[in-house]
Every structure is written in structure tokens, then in C-alpha cells.
Amino acid sequence: LVMRTFLPVSCRIFVVGVGFFSLCFLMTSLGGQFSAKRLGDSPFTTRAEVLSGQESRGVLRKISDMLEMIMKRMDALSKLGNATDTHRLDELSLALDRIQPMGLVERIQAIAQNMSDMALRVEQILQRSVANSKDGVFGSCETPKDPHYPDCTSKMDWMRARWTSDPCYAFYGVDGSDCSFLIYLSEVEWFCPPLPWRNQTATPTLKPLPKRQAVFQSDIGSLLEQVGTGKESLSFMRRRIRRLSAQWASAARRLDEKLRSLWREQKRILVHVGFLTEESGDVFSPKVLKGGPLGEMVQWADILTALHVLGHDVKISVSLKELHGFLGVPPGRGSCPLTGPLPFDLIYTDYHGLQQMKQHMGLSLRKHKCHIRVIDTFGTEPAYNHEEYATLHGYRTNWGYWNLHGQQYMTMFPHTPDNSFMGFVAEELNETERMLIQRNKVNNMAVVYGKDASMWKVSGKENFLTILHRYMEIHGTVYYETQRPPEVPAFVKNHGLLPQQELQQLLRKAKLFIGFGFPYEGPAPLEAIANGCIFLQPKFSPAHSSLNHEFFRGKPTSRKVSSQHPYAEEYIGRPHVITIDFNNSEVFDATIREIMKINVEPFLPYEYTCEGMLERVHAYIQNQDFCSPEVPFPPVNASWASLSGPFLPLPNSRVLTWAANTTSFPSWPPLTALRLLTSVQGQSCVEACQSEGLICEPALHRFINIKEAFSALDLQCEGVESEMNHLFPAFSAEHAECSLQHDPLLFSCAGSSPKYQRLCPCRDYRKGQVALCRDCL
């Protein structure tokens, strides 16, 4: 409709443009006759010889014919203007007719000069035509004053000054007139009110697509075809998907039985792997075969497989061109919204992809960001995610500040309850494989965690490796091209970089898998434990964080990392995982001797099996909704039966629960999972919930952000205030102040202060599946 409105102007420009540029082309074809240079010196020349006089006259006749055609079109154009404009075009026509036969050079010069004058006159006519059409075709184009659209005036001023800064505005029909600005700002963007003189039925409200059932699928052929093979990173992902396909299929059958063939809605999902795009630098692909980090590619391969096996309609993008095509990005520099409604229910990406979408989706990112899920290895805490708060309080980093819901960030391990735990999978063993492993274990064999030589540059490494060498044969898998890396001691048997299956065989023989402290939180320790190894890792004192360690500096988290692999330390622990101070030689020596005596079986937490990941991702997709408005809580004019509100104490416990006879509110996790308690001063809600064997649940924060929660916990408030602070709701004993959270984006499990006791929403969890409460399926 927009393009149709401006068709007369566009046609006039096209008519004059075709004639003018056709003439210019013919003139340049004659350029060699009027220059002292050879024909070959002109970049426009296509002829190899000078035209003869007869040929020149023939070309001149063509020019005259072209001018005659242009003048006929100009006559038609003049009828569209006012009388004055018509008169001026007639004068221009007469001027051209008065050109008499003369020398070839003079005649061409006269034609060129008159064409220049003609172009100037046409531009003036078109400008007046647009101005005169304001109250004609378009109706009134004064900027409306509507309090519901307070930014309309400033946006009109911006468009007047900057509309040529991005070709996408012209793509949507903007031509420099106020009418085109208003149409764009009211129909493409949403800063101005609908225009009464526009046909509002031209953009009807789209009906939602009918819901389709998701059906588990075991055939991975279409998925492998989508992943492609253009890069070594993609080839790695294909190999992993193919190798684990049988385990995924078996897990899908088990989960379907567990869900009793529950009806599940099929989602349209875009997976945009931003860090693999050329525009982001793609530093990973060249290092796949050189000992580079594979954790991210392991996780992305497993995410793709889980989404596909769950039966969703998945599209994969690893380039900006693919992203543009899938989303419907208009041509230009990314200032304008998408050309249509978002064609996906969910978009999985990473921080690189999020930045690319910001650059190319324009205002559509703000409109559709509730559909986005960000795969974020180390986590993003709410204080860093809230742009205004982060800027004012020193939490601003190169990442974060996207104002997403905290649970839209999805981590590799469940270390940040404010985020959702996505995870990955490790290969499972059948009973035959488990028996063979236990039978073939070599009691004095150790494998070092570190494929890159830089990981062996550890202070004090020689001391503890020398101790280890007394008891065990040490093996390494360090990449090298021509000669042995000097960082690897001579007594270490280095196999070089091994393919995944050969590495698995090495781990199935080894008794010990030892880490040097880096890399942090990778998948390899879980794979080693799953193959029957004991994982020995260093304890960090003090704990590593963004405050004291370069690796974490700039990351959007204040999390304190107590060891190389905190998940293994906290959720698995002895005898499979042993965490000690490597700088204490006596402790290290005693630990090695202890390990020689221990026999362990292969172990893999359920949440890192194919079934565990399918279960978790299924629950997220069917239950997490960050687009629909939440039901207000507390409800208007709410009245509780007691001062404790909807909370009741659990027997013999300081923990409160949601009263069963209280009105139920829609929530996931359900309110039956809620456990309310207070932290001690200086303790985060993550720590407070863990101390009771529970998990902090940010989705339940809004249900405890009421003054009755303080009464239920026997906290005496002299006053109740509401403000933006990532530690609130909280109680200050020093001043008997009770503080509620003003901004829901700042509800945070992380964070502590010696000044406050925090109110913490905890929940129970399923055995082996910390991401889900017992009633969450």
C-alpha cells in the first residue's frame, strides 16, 4: 500500500531517469571523437576505432530520437503539475526545438546543457508536486499531538534530518515528505498514531497459526543436512550428532513413556550460532583440529539435536545472510523493523548473535526479544543485565545490559539459578561397557586435562607432577605439529590430539583424570567421570571471580569460582571428584596414595544424559513464557486471613510454604514448590537455599515481594519502602527497615551484603535434575 501511494512520483522519476541516463550513455559512446586521447584511454569506451562521419550522423539521429521520446514523456509529466510548471516545461521544449544544425561538437554540448537544465526543472516540479499533494492525495500531514504517542514529534524531526542515513527507509516508501514520514512512523514503526485518512484495513491483524503437535523423531538426516559441512566446527558438530544419534533415539522413547504421550505443542525455532559467523571472527573453527576449546560446539550440537528429537520445526543459521533470510530483514543498515511478523516462536543464539540481531533487526528486537534464549556459558546476573542499574552502580560490562528476563540466559552448568540451566550430554555406557571398563582399568595410569600447550604453563606444575610421577604413568593429549611442546615434561607420554573415540578409550583405561586449574567448567571432566575416572582438581583460595582474576574480568557475573569445576565439586563430589590444594605437597602426596586404593564405577548425573536434557528442554519450551503479561500479584484489594499472608510454617523448620487453602495463581514452577526463608546477613539467596537443600527460584520472587512476607518471617518493620536494588526484598536489622523490589528485572538470587537479610524464594528439585521441581513436569 505504501509503495502504491507513491507510485506517481516514482513513475515520474523513472521516466526522466531512463531518458536522461540513456542519453548520457550514448554521449559517452561518442567521447573519443572529442578528445585528444585515444579511445582506449576512456573507461567507458567499447569501440576500437574512431567513428566515421556517416556513423556519427547516425548516432546523432538516435540522440535526436531519444530527445523526442523524452520530450513526449515530459509533456505527459507536465500535465501532472500546475499551470506554471506546464508553462515552464513548454519553454524548455521550445528551447530544445530551437537547436539548429551546427557542428557536431557544438550540438552535443548544447544538448548536454539543456539536459542539465531539464533535470533541474524536473526536480523543482517534483518537489512542488509532493508539497502540493499534502492536502490532496494524502490528507493532512501535520504532526499529530497525541499524549499516547509522546515521541511522535521528536521522531518526525529525526526522520527529517536522517531519513537518508539508511536505505531501508526508502524501501518502506519514505521519500523525504512529511506524509511519508508519518505513514512510516505509524504503520511500520509505532511512534505515531494511525492516520485517519489511511486505509486501516490494508494491514489486517494476522490470525495466529494453528497449533501443531510435536512428535518425537529419531531420524537425524534432515538435521545433518541443515548443519552442513562448510567449516571444521560444523563437521565436528555433525560427527557428534551422528555418533550419539542412537542414544538420543532411545532417550526419546523413554521420555515419551514417562510423559505418557502428553500432547506437546510444536514450536517454530531459529538457532543462530553467532560465534561461528564470519562477521564475528569465528576464532573457533580454525582451532578445532589444533587443541582449541570444543565445549561450546559440544553444547550447540546437543541443543540442536534435543530440539530436533523433541519434534520442533528447527532452522539453523551460521551467517548473517541466513539470519536476514530467515527473519525477513529489510535491505539497508538495520535501522528499520522486519518486513513482517516474527516467523519463529523461539530464537536460540549467543551474545555474538544477540549483538548481530540488534544491528540488523532495528526496533523489532525490542518488540520480539521475549522470544530469545541466549546460550551463555558462565551466566549473567540480574545486576549486570539491567542496563540502567548496571550503568549507575558499576555493573556495566562488555556483555550483559540487555534487559532480558534473567531466565532467558541459559548456562552450561547450573551455577547461576537466576538463569536457566541448558547443559549438554555426555555419552552413556551400557552394562557390558561398564563391566569392561572396571575390568580393564590400569590402577597407575593418569591422564592430564589440557589439549593446548598453554594449559601446561602452571606455576608449581613441576612439583605436583613429580609427585604424581612417583606413583603413576602420566599421559597427555597435547596438540603439536612438528615437535614435542616444551611445556610438557619428558616423563609424560604425549599422544597428541586424539579423535573423540580414541580419547574415550584412553579414559576408559585411566584411573585418574587430573586438571591444572584451566579451562574452567568444561565438559571433559564429566566425560572422564562417566568413563570411570576419578577427577582430581585444584581448589582456589581465594576463589576466582571478576574482582581478582583476568579470565572473569568483564563477564556479567560476580560469581566466585571455588575450583576448576565447581559443579563436579558440589553436585558429584567424593569419591568421583576430589578437590584439594595443589600447593600443599603433603596433602597432594597423600591424596594420590588414597586414589590408588579407591575403586569407583562410571558415573553420570541424570541431567547430563540424553533423557535428562530432553526432559529439561521440553519443560522449558512448554512452560517458560516471557511474552505474555503476568497476572498482577498481589491482586488489587487483596485481603489475607492473617498477617502472615499466604504463607505457613513447615513443621520443625524455619522455612515457610505457600498455604494450600490460598487462592492459586498461574505460575511455573507451581506455587506448591515455593519455600520461603531469610538469609543471614552477608549471605546470598543462592547460599541460603543451598543450606536447606533447596534451589533459589527467581520465577517465584514476585510472590514473596509483599509486606506480609516480613510478618510471616517475624521481621518487625518500622517502615516498608520499594526501590530498585538487586538485593531486595530484604530486611535491615540495624534500622528495622523492610525493602521491597521495585523492578522485577532485578529479582536476583545472587548478591549479598552484610547490611541485609534477604528474603529468598527457594524450591525443591527432582533427583538428578536440579533445573526442575518435583511438580514441574
General description of the model:
The protein folds into 4 domains: about 140-200, no CATH class; about 220-420, no CATH class; about 430-605, Glycogen Phosphorylase B (Rossmann fold, 3-Layer(aba) Sandwich); about 645-765, no CATH class. About 35% of the residues lie in helices and about 10% in strands. Helix 2 (about 5-30) runs antiparallel to helix 5, helix 4 packs antiparallel against helix 5 (about 105-130) and helix 13 packs across helix 14 (about 350-360). Strands 14, 15, 16, 17, 18, 19, 20 and 21 form an 8-stranded mixed beta sheet that branches. Strands 7, 8, 9, 10, 11, 12 and 13 form a 7-stranded mixed beta sheet that branches. The protein has a 6-stranded parallel beta sheet with strand order 2-1-3-4-5-6, sandwiched between helices. It is an alpha/beta fold. Belongs to the glycosyltransferase 18 family. InterPro entries: GT18_cat, MGAT5_Glycosyltransferase. It is found in: Golgi apparatus membrane. GO terms for molecular function: alpha-1,6-mannosylglycoprotein 6-beta-N-acetylglucosaminyltransferase activity.
